[in-house]
C-alpha cells in the first residue's frame, strides 16, 4: 500500500493566533489520484499550532467535488467524520493523520476509465472571534486533488543500437509522462521482461541477451497517477559479437584475413607480424 503524505499545519494568524495551511509533503500544488484500485489509501498528516481554548467546533476534514472549499461541508462532498478533532483533544494531541480511499471521492463511480475530475481536500475549524465569542468565524485551507484516469500518449522508439549481448535503445517520451517502460522479448514472444526508467533517462541498455537472436521491443509511457499508455510501435534489434583485431587474428589461426594475392601477402603479412610483436611486447611489459 502506497501513501502520499500531506502536511497539515495550523499556524499563527495576526488576529487570533490561528490559520490553516495545507501542503503536500513534497510541496506540490496538487495530488493526482489513480483510477484504481478503488481501495487505494491516501493518508493526511496534520499538526495544530495555536490556542486550543479558542476553538469552538472540532477541526474537520472533507473531500468535495470542484475547485473550492466552503467554511463547512457543502455541495457534493464526503466528510471524514472519523477524524474530527475537538478542542479538548487539541490541547494534548497536536498531531494526527486522516485516511481516505480513492472510492471516497464524491460523485465518482470508481473506477472511471478515461476520466479526469477535480476535487479539493478541505480542512476547517471554527474559532472564537474575541469578545463576541463563536459566531461562525472559520480558519480554513484546501488542497487540489485530481482523479486522473487518463492515460498518457504513447511514446516512440528511436534508435536501436546493437552491442555485444545487449541493445542500446532510445525512447522518445510524450510530454504528459514521467516514466518510460521498455519491454523486450524474442520474436516468438518468449523471455519477455521490462525495465522502467524516468523520462530523464530515456536511453535504455538491455543486457544479458543472446548474440545473433532478433528481439522485439515495445515501449509504454506512465504518468504521475500510474496510468499506462498503449504500446508504441514495435522495433527489432539483434545483438552482435564485437571483437578486436587480436581476437579475429587468433580465431583465424594466425592466417591472413584478407583476400590479397601473393604479391600483397608479404606486405600484409609483415604488418600483421609487426602488430603481433608489438602486442606481445606490450603484454610482457605489463607483466
Automatic annotation (TrEMBL):
Keywords: Membrane, Signal, Transmembrane, Transmembrane helix. The keyword Transmembrane applies. The chain crosses the membrane at residues 261-280. Coiled coil: none annotated. Residues 1-17 form the signal peptide. The keyword Transmembrane applies. This is MXAN_2561 family MXYO-CTERM-anchored protein. It comes from Hyalangium rubrum.
Amino acid at each position: 500500500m502506497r501513501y502520499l503524505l500531506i502536511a497539515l499545519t495550523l499556524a499563527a494568524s495576526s488576529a487570533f493566533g490561528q490559520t490553516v495551511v495545507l501542503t503536500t509533503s513534497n510541496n506540490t500544488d496538487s495530488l493526482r489520484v489513480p483510477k484504481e484500485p478503488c481501495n487505494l489509501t491516501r493518508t493526511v498528516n496534520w499538526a495544530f499550532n495555536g490556542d486550543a481554548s479558542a476553538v469552538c467546533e472540532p477541526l474537520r476534514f472533507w473531500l468535495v467535488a470542484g475547485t473550492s472549499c466552503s467554511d463547512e461541508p457543502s455541495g457534493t462532498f464526503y466528510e471524514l467524520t472519523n477524524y474530527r478533532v475537538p478542542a479538548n483533544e487539541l490541547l494534548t494531541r497536536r498531531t494526527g493523520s486522516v485516511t481516505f480511499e480513492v472510492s471516497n471521492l464524491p460523485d465518482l463511480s470508481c473506477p472511471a476509465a478515461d476520466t479526469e475530475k477535480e476535487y479539493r481536500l478541505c480542512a476547517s475549524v471554527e474559532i472564537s472571534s474575541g469578545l463576541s465569542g463563536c459566531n461562525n468565524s472559520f480558519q480554513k485551507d484546501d488542497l487540489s486533488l485530481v482523479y486522473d484516469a487518463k492515460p498518457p500518449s504513447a511514446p516512440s522508439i528511436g534508435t536501436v543500437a546493437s552491442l555485444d549481448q545487449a541493445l542500446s535503445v532510445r525512447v522518445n517520451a510524450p510530454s504528459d509522462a514521467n516514466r518510460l517502460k521498455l519491454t523486450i522479448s524474442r520474436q516468438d514472444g518468449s523471455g519477455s521482461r521490462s525495465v522502467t526508467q524516468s523520462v530523464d533517462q530515456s536511453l535504455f541498455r538491455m543486457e544479458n541477451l543472446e548474440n545473433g537472436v532478433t528481439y522485439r521491443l515495445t515501449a509504454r509511457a506512465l504518468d504521475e497517477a500510474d496510468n499506462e499508455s498503449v504500446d508504441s510501435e514495435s522495433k527489432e534489434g539483434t545483438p552482435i559479437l564485437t571483437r578486436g583485431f587480436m581476437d579475429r587474428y587468433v580465431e583465424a589461426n594466425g592466417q591472413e584475413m584478407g583476400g590479397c594475392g601473393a604479391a600483397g601477402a608479404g606486405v600484409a603479412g609483415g604488418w600483421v607480424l609487426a602488430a603481433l610483436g608489438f602486442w606481445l611486447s606490450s603484454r610482457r611489459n605489463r607483466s
